[in-house]
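Forum: Protein Structure Q&A
Topic: Joint prediction for protein chains with partners

I've read a bunch of threads here and the consensus seems to be that you should model interacting components together rather than docking separate models afterwards. I'd like to see that in practice. Below is the full input, 210 residues plus whatever partners are listed. Could one of the regulars post the assembled result?
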Amino acid sequence: MPPAETVTTGRLEIRPGEHTVLLDGVPLVLTVRELALLSELAQNSDRVLTREELYRAVWGGDLRTTDRSVDVYVSRLRAKLAAVVPEKPFIHTHFGIGYRFSPGA
Amino acid sequence: MPPAETVTTGRLEIRPGEHTVLLDGVPLVLTVRELALLSELAQNSDRVLTREELYRAVWGGDLRTTDRSVDVYVSRLRAKLAAVVPEKPFIHTHFGIGYRFSPGA
DNA sequence: CGACGCGTTCACACGCGTTTCACCAGGCAA
DNA sequence: TTGCCTGGTGAAACGCGTGTGAACGCGTCG
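Posted by a regular:
Agreed with the consensus. Here's the joint model:
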């Protein structure tokens, strides 16, 4: 687990210590879970993470088969990211596997 | 240097842990089945594999006589490989037998 | 005590991947 | 060449995985 330092990937800047996220310099209002999930994705940029990996990292414990929490939070994150940058999808779905965060250029 | 599980044959690099395939450094977007089939072929480079062998390895169980799944997926893999490297055929047909993957130079 | 925010779960529609089908192309034998 | 068999591949059918609005429960704060 990396320290609570500022993480910058592309246009995204995460300051866990201050519980703030900047996208293109625009502050995002995220809940604790949303921030944790986005951090986990951003720290593994351009890597496909399974739901199990994400759940374990953010929620802890094993993902139950019916649990859709990861999907729901990915959806909410996408909405908040798209509110600032509508034209670029940051979180990509890998069907049958999981998700991948791509900070892009 | 990639992790130990990475399979590299010629211009192809397969990272099963990340569900990622690179051809000449270009990431290929493959489905789960496509990736499994390509892995099986690449792990047996320059060796002719029968449809039965491929089906057993990727799908599991026995190949029914009418099942064309292997052919269809070989076709799709060829298309995606050719999208990156049009001039070189990687998957060769051995008439009446099966297929052979040749990573080349 | 009521309102609010957050996390979780549910429900349903939709998109994507897989399988199957159909038809065409190409190789092999005679 | 003729005929048969094998392989190539576009497209439809089907089932399952995913997207997402909404409801619910719970804790917190005014």
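Chain B has three helices and seven strands.
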